[in-house]
Each structure stands twice: as structure tokens, then as C-alpha cells.
Backbone:
């Protein structure tokens, strides 16, 4: 939502950038598209990035700014349930597919916090919220900003018990061939777009609906507000830290059984601790 508005209202142009927004490719394909020269940048999760590396080998693309500073994986629970913090979810019934990446991330997150894994109740991803609504499971694993959709599917009020893991979730990936000044300006523009979105969440709804007319505007605004806590943290938005990166790569690789590449090959070292503007 912030980036669609930035393209429409000229924010990218303020940073000297002419930007064409492309439809996102599924999963790791976004990363491979940048590596192949089909796009210059993409916004993607660390999981998709590491999976692209695992499938395609070394790619000449690296992270240059982190957007979602803390992992938003959560246990989505009934609003009237007794579950309020991650320790309440240890050993509880978790609805989801056995092969789900979200389930893997959630279970690994509990272990990261020193807690017992949840008891997995196998159910299709699309049917898990309904099982939550019927009381057949205690939680479903998903990102906090998807509460509006989960609430509709469950037929009950839902809230998120955030694991609030201190690992990066997603950010801006750039082709290695791009010069530093272009990368700097794009990182600054992305941060500026997020900060403007925070100031006035409803301002970008019009641009979003022009591109995706079937989107529910109320869901879009609520989802953004739920995502804010993982974007605007104690760390400056857009910044990257070497220790946080080491923790992130280890966590994601373990959770999804992926190779852990050398951290310096995942991000541009010169971008570490770069304050690209904005902040919490």
C-alpha cells in the first residue's frame, strides 16, 4: 500500500527515481527476477531469499534495507481465549498443514523463546480459521496483519499473540550491479513511503483501489495498523545490524531446513547500521 501510493503521488520522483511497480512474482521468483535483470529491486522475505539461494546457488542480489524489523509471526487466537503471551501457547493445539512454512516458523519461534512446541492438528491452511472458530484448535500460525481475513473465515473475533522475535522478516533487495547512490535513494524513498503511510494510513487507499479494486479498504487499513508494530521498532526503520543478521540467518535456515550462507553474502556490508531516515 505505501509503495503504490508513492508511485502515484510522486514520492519516488522526489528522490530522483523513475519507478515502475511490477506485480510480485511468487515466493523466491522475485529474487531470481532481480538476479536475471528483470527488475532492479524487490521487497521480499528472508525466507524467500534464502530459498532462492538454496535453489539457484549464489545470486548477485543482496539486502540493502530492512523494512519489517521484527518477525510478525503470531498465534491467532479467539479474542475471548485465555492466551495472551507466547508462553500460554506452549503445548497448545495449533491448526495448520504439516508442510506449512508458517507453521515451521511459528514452531521454531516457540523454541527460540525456550518454549515447548505446540501440538499440531493437521488441517488445510484455508480451513484452519474455521477450526479455530469451532474451538477445535487453540491457535493458527500467521502474521498479525492477516487478522481481518482470519476473523471472517473463523466467524469469531480474533486477536494476535505475537512471538515478537528479534529477527528480520523482510526488506529491500537490490541487484549487485546497481550503484550505491541509486540504492541509497531507493532505500530512502521506501522509508519515506512507510513513514507517510504511518502518518495517514487512509491516504493511500485510493491508489490501492485503483490498482486492486477488489480489496476491502477497511481490511487494508486495519492490516497496515497491525503490521506497524513489526516495522516501527526500537531500531531505525531501514537499518541493518550485523548481529541481528547473524541471528536472522541462523533462525530462518533452521526453521525451514535451508543452507545458511555467509552473512556478508546476504547483505551489502556498507549498508550496515545505515540510518535511511524515518524511525520509530
Residues:
Amino acid at each position: 500500500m505505501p509503495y503504490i501510493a508513492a508511485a502515484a503521488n510522486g514520492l519516488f520522483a522526489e528522490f530522483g527515481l523513475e519507478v515502475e511497480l511490477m506485480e510480485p512474482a511468487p515466493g523466491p521468483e522475485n529474487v531470481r527476477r532481480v538476479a536475471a535483470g528483470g527488475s532492479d529491486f524487490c521487497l521480499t522475505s528472508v525466507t524467500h531469499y534464502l530459498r532462492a539461494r538454496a535453489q539457484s546457488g549464489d545470486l548477485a542480489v543482496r539486502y540493502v534495507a530492512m523494512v519489517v524489523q521484527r518477525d510478525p509471526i503470531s498465534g491467532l487466537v479467539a479474542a475471548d481465549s485465555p492466551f495472551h503471551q507466547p508462553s500460554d501457547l506452549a503445548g497448545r493445539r495449533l491448526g495448520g498443514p504439516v508442510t506449512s512454512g508458517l507453521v515451521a516458523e511459528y514452531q521454531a519461534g516457540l523454541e527460540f523463546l525456550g518454549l515447548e512446541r505446540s501440538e499440531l492438528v493437521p488441517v488445510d491452511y484455508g480451513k484452519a480459521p474455521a477450526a479455530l472458530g469451532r474451538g477445535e484448535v487453540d491457535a493458527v500460525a500467521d502474521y498479525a496483519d492477516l487478522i481481518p481475513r482470519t476473523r471472517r473465515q473463523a466467524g469469531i473475533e480474533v486477536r494476535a499473540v505475537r512471538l515478537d522475535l528479534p529477527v528480520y522478516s523482510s526488506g529491500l533487495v537490490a541487484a549487485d550491479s546497481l550503484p550505491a547512490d541509486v540504492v541509497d535513494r531507493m532505500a530512502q524513498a521506501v522509508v519515506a513511503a512507510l513513514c507517510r503511510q504511518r502518518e495517514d494510513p487512509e491516504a493511500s487507499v485510493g491508489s490501492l483501489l485503483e490498482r486492486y479494486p477488489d480489496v476491502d479498504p477497511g481490511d487494508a487499513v486495519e492490516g497496515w495498523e497491525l503490521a506497524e508494530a513489526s516495522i516501527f521498532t526500537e531500531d531505525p526503520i531501514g537499518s541493518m545490524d550485523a548481529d541481528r543478521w547473524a541471528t536472522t540467518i541462523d533462525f530462518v535456515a533452521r526453521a525451514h531446513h535451508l543452507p545458511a550462507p555467509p552473512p556478508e553474502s546476504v547483505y551489502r556490508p556498507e549498508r550496515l547500521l545505515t540510518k535511511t531516515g524515518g524511525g520509530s
